[in-house]
Automatic annotation (TrEMBL):
Keywords: Detoxification, FAD, Flavoprotein, Heme, Iron, Metal-binding, NAD, NADP, Oxidoreductase, Oxygen transport, Transport. GO terms for biological process: cellular response to nitrosative stress; nitric oxide catabolic process; response to toxic substance. Is involved in NO detoxification in an aerobic process, termed nitric oxide dioxygenase (NOD) reaction that utilizes O(2) and NAD(P)H to convert NO to nitrate, which protects the bacterium from various noxious nitrogen compounds. Therefore, plays a central role in the inducible response to nitrosative stress. This is Flavohemoprotein. GO terms for molecular function: FAD binding; heme binding; metal ion binding; nitric oxide dioxygenase NAD(P)H activity; oxygen binding; oxygen carrier activity. The keyword NADP applies. It is an enzyme of class 1 (oxidoreductase). Signal peptide: none annotated. Gene3D superfamilies: Globins (1.10.490.10), Nucleotide-binding domain of ferredoxin-NADP reductase (FNR) module (3.40.50.80), Translation factors (2.40.30.10). Its cofactor is heme b; FAD. In the C-terminal section; belongs to the flavoprotein pyridine nucleotide cytochrome reductase family. Belongs to the globin family. Two-domain flavohemoproteins subfamily. Residues 1-137 form the Globin domain. It catalyses: 2 nitric oxide + NADH + 2 O2 = 2 nitrate + NAD(+) + H(+); 2 nitric oxide + NADPH + 2 O2 = 2 nitrate + NADP(+) + H(+).
Amino acid sequence: MNEQQIALVKDTVPVLRESGVALTSHFYQRMLTHNPELKNIFNQVHQQKGRQQRALANAVLAYAEHIDDPSALNAVVERIAHKHTSLGIRPEQYAIVGKHLLASIKEVLGEAASQELIDAWAIAYQQLADLFIQVESQLYQTAINDHQGWTGWRPFKIAKKVQESDEITSFYLTPCDQGTLPHYHPGQYISVRVFIPDTDLYQPRQYSLSIASNNEYLRISVKKQPALDKYPEGVVSNLLHEEYTEGSIIDVSTPYGDFFWDSDSTHPTVLLSGGVGITPMMAIADAINAANDTQKVYFIHSARSSNVHAFKTFTDNLPSPQFSVSYFYDNKTIADSDVQQGPLTLEDVLPSDYHNADFYVCGPEGFMQNYLPKLRQLGIDESRIHAEAFGSGGVE
Ligand SMILES: Cc1cc2nc3c(=O)[nH]c(=O)nc-3n(C[C@H](O)[C@H](O)[C@H](O)COP(=O)(O)OP(=O)(O)OC[C@H]3O[C@@H](n4cnc5c(N)ncnc54)[C@H](O)[C@@H]3O)c2cc1C
Ligand code: HEM
């Protein structure tokens, strides 16, 4: 891009800050009207909630702000690219997005969008699209060449369903083609795709693998999302719990995700989870346990009550003193003798050498909003904090 084009893109920063969500809402409506087949890969509930619109608006704004040095966004690009590859996004789809994004800039900005501005954004978009396409191509190749992965969807059979708590059920998945299973890093997720009869659409969702990589099965553990306030119960999780039985088939992606345990690290590891955020921690704890090294692990889990506390038998049996396990319940009863009264207070459970530890954090939005700033306040270096948010667009 030349100096003038960079300046033109930067000039749109105030307007993106002000009207970015209006722009991306217009964009999605336009694109999904012209290309309705894409409704099968976009989470329709995220669309209704405006999550995806906010996530894209934030990404476009961040890109415009860093247009003279997009490498500042490498970590964000990497994270989005993992989500894209788990959904099987292809290079040719960038042209569709580009066409509707540029048309939306014109339509939303109206007369304020000069031809020079549109031309500058066309070049800026292509530069970003090329970056994503390159990173995603690398991820696809690594998955296939190094991890026994595949591209797109592969049918898996639900070999076994196991109830882990009142709300969480595990699904043990084996490939219908009886081929080999992928190798993955503990903490990574898969996308699954199910057909929704009510809307006549396929819908994807991501689920963390809740056991370390093995040669027998993939395991995901899904919370049945209840209706919230005026909103209906979760579409895919309820379908999986109620309609998908042992023997049913679901489509599964290769594992992806940039949130995973660093097996080369010798630092103490703190696994901090709330509710269903325990799932990636299960895979990490399982992997560390199997690795047979001496690294100290603090497994800290917070749940509403014993009824919804999953995997307790497994974590109770993690070998001590290597593993130090603490539980917190919001509603603790006398029977919960090995549990502390929530909310969890980090200072009470962290090791004295916590500045030297690696932190892995996963939980509901409120949990993340509470504990991530606390870790920063405690002076933990950003590079040591690894977080996974179960929504779209990171922690809001
Ligand atoms: C990387 C990653 C890993 C994940 N791992 C796991 C895991 O291991 N286990 C797990 O259970 N989940 C996991 N998730 C979450 C999972 O992908 C789904 O988001 C979750 O199962 C809910 O999907 P659903 O279709 O049941 O609910 P949805 O239908 O998507 O609804 C979600 C919530 O939104 C509410 N809602 C519906 N419509 C609206 C509206 N218009 N406005 C506001 N709210 C509305 C619903 O009541 C519901 O509570 C993960 C997510 C990510 C991104
Ligand atoms: C330069 C172009 C693009 C940018 C900046 C972009 C940005 C984003 C962002 C910020 C997210 C949210 C990530 C998260 O959940 O953490 C996302 C998710 C997603 N993107 Fe893209 N994207 C681009 C291109 C594409 C293309 C070409 C497609 C395919 C048509 C696509 C399909 C999706 C889908 C399906 C999701 C998940 C949506 C959801 O679950 O709500 N994206 N993208």
